[in-house]
Amino acid sequence: xxxxxxxxxxxxxxxxxxxxxxxxxxxxxxxxxxxxxxxxxxxxxxxxxxxxxxxxxxxxxxxxxxxxxxxxxxxxxxxxxxxxxxxxxxxxxxxxxxxxxxxxxxxxxxxxxxxxxxxxxxxxxxxxxxxxxxxxxxxxxxxxxxxxxxxxxxxxxxxxxxxxxxxxxxxxxxxxxxxxxxxxxxxxxxxxxxxxxxxxxxxxxxxxxxxxxxxxxxxxxxxxxxxxxxxxxxxxxx
Length: 238
What we know:
By secondary structure, the chain is mainly alpha-helical. The protein contains nine helices and no strands.
């Protein structure tokens, strides 16, 4: 009999490999699915996402690192929760064969893969945060813009890899590759749009120079994520 630790290690290895045939057994309705696999995904998101978030906030010090380490997993779980109903409906509209529970489980697996990727890169991003000029230095403004754009690209990269794994899983389940792609892109559009805005609402993530470190901004609902990215691009080009 395998111990709980051995089962956990084996499940994490399965998740890291991302074999669609193995991950298919993690979905509700399959004989091999179980609560432990869902907990593995939740723990991976908390740990991997938390480490990556802490590496981002480290540019502003330990307090900010703790704040962002808490907020990044929350962004993922809030996005999953708010989009769960509409994504389940989209899966059925496109004829994927997935129910609401299976849709949520499939996306939980995808976000866990995302957390594995960014979590594994957190030592590098932590080193980058330490090496860049601090927020109180003369070059703090440029360093902040660089961090914002770099992590936007990195998050997009990890998202592409995670969704490629999710597409492989959907192709194992859906009646055709076309339905799998349509289902994935509909999920991706909603998750990207909502996730980006939630991350903006839960700012500060990077901690803008000259602004007090705090868990949430008082101007919570002022502006949006897309305006901030455009602002960074225009300022950096100047």
